[in-house]
Amino acid sequence: MDALAVKTYLLSLQDKIVTGLEAMDGGTFLRDSWERAEGGGGISRVIESSHVLERGGVNFSHVFGQKLPPSASAGRPELAGRSFEAMGVSLVLHPHNPFVPTVHLNVRFFCATQEGMDPVWWFGGGMDLTPYYGFEEDAIHFHQTCQLALQPFGPDWYPQFKQWCDRYFFLKHRSEPRGIGGVFFDDLQAGGFDNAFAMTRAIGDSFLDAYLPIVQRRKALEWNQTQRDWQCYRRGRYVEFNLVWDRGTLFGLQSNGRTESILVSMPPEVSWRYNHTPAPGSAEARLLSDFLCERDWL
């Protein structure tokens, strides 16, 4: 296990992604370093009200604690109460244009320790796409990029992580997916440290290839207020998931992380309407029927 190599990679990934996004957007990300009283800290890179991105956060954190928070030990209750070290890069991008989807990426590393026992480490993360208007070309491209990233490790990883993503990014209280998915994994130790780390890097390194071509295709499309209203309404689902179900958000809050950095994932403008149903046959209705459903995109 080499935690320093993981940290070095994550910091380079943050820089690489920010550089790529700035080239696409034409704006500049704010750099905001912070420290955590209990141990550790991070670097938040944030852009708001820019040319393409209404809000974007690309955050690095490396924190320590005396007791693993419940959200981190939910799948491994035998580790509850151990000391921990956690580091990762997490991003959420909310574009202005309703035809450009919101996207999320997270890659992370945990190590839980207890005196007299061997440390327990694992990797987690993934990326998923949340469109407001459906384009099959975009969905196929996103999933193909995820598949190609995992292909060197064997043919079974993409379908396994795709199904995991579909299960995880699901609003149970509404019985609907958050978006069209992608890949998601947690508690990854497969093949030992070097292999699990390589798989995690493959996901992180493929993000710009997965997302930027979609942005380039859609960012100049004209949109109207009706489409903006639909985007804001559907963003409400994003907020609901992050605050009710997302383990990353819960871990950050439970571990006394920096609230501003955790909640930069929230869209700057959002709305809720009671029992709203789009007109039959509309592009909005097609998003729900043809895209926000269990589907094989390859």
Automatic annotation (TrEMBL):
It is an enzyme of class 1 (oxidoreductase). The keyword Cytoplasm applies. InterPro entries: Coprogen_oxidase_aer, Coprogen_oxidase_aer_sf, Coprogen_oxidase_CS. Its EC number is 1.3.3.3. Residues 238-273 are annotated as: Important for dimerization. Involved in the heme biosynthesis. Catalyzes the aerobic oxidative decarboxylation of propionate groups of rings A and B of coproporphyrinogen-III to yield the vinyl groups in protoporphyrinogen-IX. HAMAP family: Coprogen_oxidas. This is Oxygen-dependent coproporphyrinogen-III oxidase. It comes from Parachitinimonas caeni. The lineage of its organism: Bacteria, Pseudomonadati, Pseudomonadota, Betaproteobacteria, Neisseriales.
